[in-house]
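Handoff note, outgoing to incoming analyst
You'll be picking up this chain. Sequence as last confirmed:
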Amino acid sequence: MTSFFSATVGPVPAVMLVVLAVVCAVTDLWKGKIYNKVTYGAILAGFAVHFWLGGVHGLWSSLGGFAVGYFPAFLLFMLGGLGGGDVKLLAAIGAIAGAIASTETLILAFLFGAVFALCKLAWYGRLFASFGRVLRTMAGYLVPGVTKQPLVAEGQEPLTVRFGVAICVATLATLWDLRAGGLWALVAS
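Most recent structure output, in case you need it:
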């Protein structure tokens, strides 16, 4: 049964990650929230499991993963681009998965989130208009005399993406990738 899991993320952390990611994606879609009880409990459980499985070395691995998941997401939270629940979810995934899996999950979550956002803009017919406003705003920063446009057109509500879903998909993709030998194993062959 252990061959189903990767050497990077063992069976117990992998099951914890799947449960955490799915629960948070469901609550994010359903209620628009990722609950503190779930994320704080997962962070503590990640530290405890890694300490139980690997002693002090396992705890350091868990703390490294926590840092990888937390700090980039917190920076985006401070800039207004990410919700607090998303930050805590990424930190919990890091605490459970460790630094390697947390790094891949973080990168994939941002990629999936971007794809979801582009799809939502296209669904609502705002994709090309949004690209135009972004380009005009960028030109406003770079070219003197060009006025910046607001990123959301006047009278329109801003569209949001439930990032917990992107994090869930990224977590599952990371677990699958690590089980298959990792992305770098495929690139090297």
